[in-house]
Amino acid sequence: MSDAPETLAEYGDGAVLVDRPLAQVARITFNRPERRNAMNAALLRGYYDALATLRDDPACRVIVLTGAGPGFCAGLDLAEGVKLPDLEGLSRPQAGMRVQQYIANLIPLMRSQPQPII
Fold it and tell me: Dihedral of the CA atoms 20, 105, 68, 18 (nearest 10)?
């Protein structure tokens, strides 16, 4: 039997992984080490989806947030950007504001999560 934690789920095309290193502990890992886990659309969508899944999980008492590789998160991926599906037809400033709102909405979502996030 391996001591490696079992990956329970992949979100955002593998940009976010969730495993259970201990009973009642879920670990969310940003998994873009080649970009120092910089945020793109897949990582953000994956993080939203992982939080939504864990929100309703009574076996999860705490969430540990980490990043794969040498860095936690380099911020926004400036090379790739965040291309949300509903940006078509918006001006550049409008699209930029929509992306900022999408990222900013993570903060109240994290604060409302029933499990503490460390």
Answer: 20
User: What are 21's two structure tokens?
Assistant: 């290193």
Q: Which pLDDT belongs to residue 2?
A: 52
53-79 per-position pLDDT tens digit: 999 999 999 999 999 999 999 999 999
The residue written with tokens 């039997």 in the block is 1
* Contact in structure between 41 and 86 (CB atoms under 8 Å): no
Would you list the domain boundaries of the chain? 7-112
CB 19 within 8 Å of CB 27: yes
**Class of domain 7-112 as given by CATH:** alpha beta
The predicted structure's pLDDT at residue 4: 55
Helix or strand (DSSP H, E) at 93: helix 92-104
Of 29, 24, 23, 25, residue with least CA distance to 9 = 29
Tell me 4's DSSP state: S
